[in-house]
Amino acid sequence: FYLTPPQVNSILKANEYSFKVPEFDGKNVSSVLGFDSNQLPANAPIEDRRSAATCLQTRGMLLGVFDGHAGCACAQAVSERLFYYIAVSLLPHETLLEIENAVESGRALLPILQWHKHPNDYFSKEASKLYFNSLRTYWQELIDLNSGETTDVREALINAFKRLDNDISLEAQVGDPNSFLNYLVLRVAFSGATACVAHVDGVDLHIANTGDSRAMLGVQEEDGSWSAVNLSYDHNAQNEHEVERVKMEHPKSEEKSLVKQDRLLGLLMPFRAFGDVKFKWSIELQKRVVESGPDQLNDNEYTKFIPPNYHTPPYLTAEPEVIHHKLRPQDKFLVLATDGLWETMHRQDVARIVGEYLTGVHHQQPIAVGGYKVTLGQMHGLLTERRARISSVFEDQNAATHLIRHAVGNNEFGTVDHERLSKMLSLPEELARMYRDDITIIVVQFNSHVIGAYQNEE
Amino acid sequence: AAGMFLRLLSDIQWRAAHPKWRRMTSSQRSTSTAAEPHPVSLPAQAQVVICGGGIMGTSVAYHLSKMGWKDIVLLEQGRLAAGTTRFCAGIVSTARPVSIELKMAHYSNKLYQQLEQETGVQTGYMKTGSISLAQTQDRLISLKRIASSLNVMGIPCEIISPKKVVQLHPLINIHDLVGAMYVPEDALVSSANVSLALATAASRNGVQIHERTSVSHVTVQKGRVTGVETDRGRIQCEYFVNCAGQWAYELGHSGEDPVHIPLHACEHFYLLTHPLKEPLSSSLPTVVDPDGRIYIRNWQGGILSGGFEKNPKPLFTEGRNQLEIQNLQEDWDHFGPLLSALLRRMPGLEALQIMQLVNCPESFTPDMRCIMGESPTARGYFVLAGMNSAGISYGGGAGKYLAEWMVNGYPSENVWPLDLKRFGTLQSSRTFLRHRVMEVMPLMCDLKVPRWDFQTGRQLRTSPLYDRLDAQGARWMEKHGFERVKYFVPPGKDLLDLDHSKTFYKPDWFDIVGSEVKCCKEAVCVIDMSSFTKFEISSTGDQALESLQYLFSNDLDVPVGHVVHTGMLNEKGGYENDCSIARLSKRSFFMISPTDQQVHCWAWLKNRLPDDSNLIMEDVTWKYTALNLIGPRAVDVLSELSYAPMTAEHFPSLFCKEMSVGYANGIRVMSITHTGEPGFVLYIPIEYALHVYNEVMNMGQKYGIRNAGYYALRSLRIEKFFAFWGQDLDAFTTPMECGREFQVKLEKGMQFLGQEALLEQKQNGVYKRFTMFILEDHDTDMDLWPWWGEPIFRNGRYVGKTTSSAYSYTLERHVCLGFVHHFDEKTGEELVVTTDFINQGEYEIDIAGQRFQAKAKLYPFSSLFTQRRRKDEVELSGYQRE
């Protein structure tokens, strides 16, 4: 049983989304040309989320991928809420006041974000009121705190991450009279999510990362070849600094039990995450909330289970690591992706495949036989392989889809093998998770002309 | 090849007798190592200048000089036998679907075979035979059709089984084959050497050959060639022959009055390999695998294999010289699919080592047929080019026909299918050519089924009613760039898509056309026939009548308002055109001819009408929309619309009158329908076309009017035994041979063109006779349909070929039209064909190797004519066109 190429394509393309920054007067003055994004589920339902939005009251664009675990509730909530927290953190005092006044007097609110959503990317209607109130509390505090200083993007990102995680925690502790919402906020808090968010404003690119998703810059060298620059560090056991940080935050007595089998407390892969209150709350708080919570929560073995060697919480934080990068004309694109991609592909390959896709150059130098000894059979094999490579490029109108095709279908020679692709995509739900993870990818393409112009101004 | 030629020259000079030649060769030899390229100055004048030293130019020179013309100069921009000729794969193949091309290839083969003996130049001629493979039943049918026509020409050819294929060529994988055609006398040559051999023979006969001489343009005065300008000076000449291959188009456009030669080059790829471990025998047959789009021949112990891909790469030649064209890039990715086909056909070649992928340009034409003949605008300007990748196969024959054309005024065969004048300026757009050749090149390998229409370069010329008809379900075909309706698909009915509609059997529109025919017979139909060529000829005095009386065989001195069917004959009495002429007034005539006569007929008349400013000829084709109202109720529709009585007493057959139809005035109504059915053709000034059409359709409703197309017209005309110029009639057919003596007025009181030939035929009888055949044991649903070109057998002996065929919905039988000859049983000599000879035979028609009994008739079924008319009024064996 094999999927035909059209069937394979319909699976790969089901979640693809593209956005082109609109042009004015035939010119795009943004440093971002647009982005392609896509998701391929392995879990059912998928636990990854993605978000993209343009800030309307400040300049800049936000893009992020969110990898959920222990369910998708937390990733969903973060994907809906985080960008509002970031946008609000970036707003100048006057705008915050204006917004607050509008809400106060029941006037129409200034729009803060313009979302760029795939139809499958949904927002929870039921929780919007609750989420809005938490957000409003946040900006009211910002108004009160008015420091008078211009907003620093790094600060804003860190504050927004921390504040949202805090709100998630608080909402779960307070609960909600509405039983559906009450259960929802608990599921959000007890599940977890990593986040990797990019904020692009002109040549200023900030990456805020919490967890083991990754941001990577695609750079075109002078000779036309492609290289990858990491713009985030994975927060997991492979990152020595992370292990060091965790150890620093807890007494020496726990040193051995903190990281076991490359997992936090022997349980959690990412070392930073939203939600996951089981790694943040005290044992007492956990027990109280679970016991007073709805039956579904009470019956859940996972939520009742207390991690072993749990002595000095919190063990987990949502605070992001922020990296700032000044974009250069040779920086052609940014890839944000959950670990599902990075497990299967090396970043160097990612850079090459996307770079070649976006430039339409496939390093397909014309073949010349010249004086070499080539047989008909060899030539035939070579041409067939080249054709397969070209056809897979032409099949995709979306760089993220193209990357997924390679991530899932690549054979040992680094070319897409249809048979393999078909097999991987036709795995039954139970098996899929064993062969691959959810994959979510956003590929942001930069406008080198605009970036070059910025540079010249400076 | 260049070095080879130098060697040849030194060989030849000892034998060459002509002083000019000797002077040239000796001086060339003496300077052959120096850079000075032009040893001999050009002559100031010559009778003929040929441009192009490839296979075409050298073949024309060879044949002209053989026919006694000596004062000939051949100019070549680079070296002889360079260009496409040098790269040509060298396959001489006679398996051609078009009869005239088949004859050319057959002659070429015979010529090349003895060329080495004649000239002493090695041509590499090797009779290997060729095998054309069929992967499908349809392909096999098309091969069988070709086999039938090869066989009746006496060219050995057989349809063989896959097993036999392996015996002939052990490398071929046959598991996917259903059969094949074997032509044992097909050959291989070195095309460059054939060209050099022809040049050698020509130069011995006095032709001067100058290499490295470029023609910049041709000068024309008063419509005649006067000379050529070259980069080495001017040569005065009477005749110029454009054999410039892929440069022919630009050379044609370089002069002040452009000569339009519609061809466009495409890149063509073939592969050369090193020899096999056990080198392939040079006598191994050439393999053509059209379904795989490839050909494979043996080459120096290895193979040469190329093909015609689905996605050809058109090539611009503007501003590029021969050297640049020779250095075209190899493109392996492009060749990939053809390589796959090759390895599928010969899997054993996997380990064979590649030598080179050759990229050689080939010129293609808009209709896949080569271009030959004289320019319609510049007398003495001849063309031979656009070989559609079969240059070496056609070279000999094409050169011979063109030489005959120049020397005798016309070739010894009907070459209308190849005549330059079948094209006009409208096929000369670069964009059109580029798009069309991209369709034509893949078609080289595609199945050639009946009623194929080109898909590119369409909707160029249209009737003002085009959109209206299209919205009503019209399906279109194209003639001379003009869109014409084939039939109308009724609402709710779906036909097969293009690819699936290809068939040699009963087509999917069978019932649709049947109902259109029925409506023509019982009620009334409208067919838009605007594509016809329309000329108006008028004069201040009697010049128009006098000139036309000489150029046409029927008597045109008829009362005003009469329409005359008449042939426009050549000196031999053959049809150059077949038309209807209405006498609009004493001094003006309105002439209707077939669509593709626009260029040819214009040139023919222009060249023969007296140079008199008081005699005016105008092409008014574009000014009129023609609506053909066919059927017994046409008379009712028209009389209601015009408030005029239209019955036979008031408006007899073959009558023309300007009248009003609806609000529109000045509509030329003619009581002819080109089908033998009652009705009228309305010639409507185009701005009234929509109005008149709407009026006719509204008024016609109560009489059951409907739209119809050319397929219905065709069925009607063929069952009535109406011949059609270009299909049944040609320059080699006289009115006497097709039962149209009544359209010739030998005694009209003045001389006319062709009169003597017709008088002689009248006395001595004819050597072929146009005959109608009704297929007897043919099952319309199950059997292969006849098309045209099917051999006719009388008492088991071949007597001729069909020229057209159609299903007659009235007779419920297939009708084929064709010519019957009488070949002497022993000598093969042509004898006079008498009525008795026709009537006293048992006939069979061969459709793709299967013979069907047929009944021969010399007159149509009178029962088919619904209205009785006076005998001279009946359009009996009148003309029709499609």
TrEMBL record, chain A:
InterPro entries, alphabetized: PP2C, PP2C_BS, PPM-type-like_dom_sf, PPM-type_phosphatase-like_dom
Alphabetical keyword list: Acetylation, Calcium, Hydrolase, Magnesium, Metal-binding, Mitochondrion, Protein phosphatase, Transit peptide
Pfam families to which the protein is assigned, alphabetical: PP2C
Entry-linked CDD domains: PP2Cc
Gene Ontology CC, one term: mitochondrion
PPM-type phosphatase domain: residues covered: 32-446
Highest taxon of source: Eukaryota
GO molecular function: [pyruvate dehydrogenase (acetyl-transferring)]-phosphatase activity; metal ion binding
Annotated localization: Mitochondrion
Subunit structure: Heterodimer of a catalytic (PDP1) and a regulatory (PDPR) subunit.
Entry protein name: [Pyruvate dehydrogenase [acetyl-transferring]]-phosphatase 1, mitochondrial
Organism lineage: Eukaryota, Metazoa, Chordata, Craniata, Vertebrata
Gene of this entry: Pdp1
From TrEMBL, chain B:
Entry's localization field: Mitochondrion matrix
SUPFAM superfamilies in UniProt: Aminomethyltransferase beta-barrel domain, FAD-linked reductases, C-terminal domain, FAD/NAD(P)-binding domain, Folate-binding domain
Short name of one Pfam family: FAO_M
Keyword Mitochondrion: yes
Gene3D superfamilies for the chain: Aminomethyltransferase beta-barrel domains (2.40.30.110), D-Amino Acid Oxidase, subunit A, domain 2 (3.30.9.10), FAD/NAD(P)-binding domain (3.50.50.60), Probable tRNA modification gtpase trme, domain 1 (3.30.1360.120)
Alphabetical list of PROSITE patterns matching this protein: RHODANESE_3
Source organism superkingdom: Eukaryota
Gene Ontology annotations for the cellular component aspect, listed alphabetically: mitochondrial matrix
All copies of domain Rhodanese, residue ranges: 48-91
Keyword Mitochondrion belongs to the record: yes
Keywords of this entry: Mitochondrion, Transit peptide
Coiled coil: none
Record's subunit section: Heterodimer of a catalytic (PDP1) and a regulatory (PDPR) subunit.
Task performed by this protein: Decreases the sensitivity of PDP1 to magnesium ions, and this inhibition is reversed by the polyamine spermine.
Sequence similarity: Belongs to the GcvT family.
Protein name (database record): Pyruvate dehydrogenase phosphatase regulatory subunit, mitochondrial
Species in which this protein is naturally found: Falcunculus frontatus (Eastern shriketit)
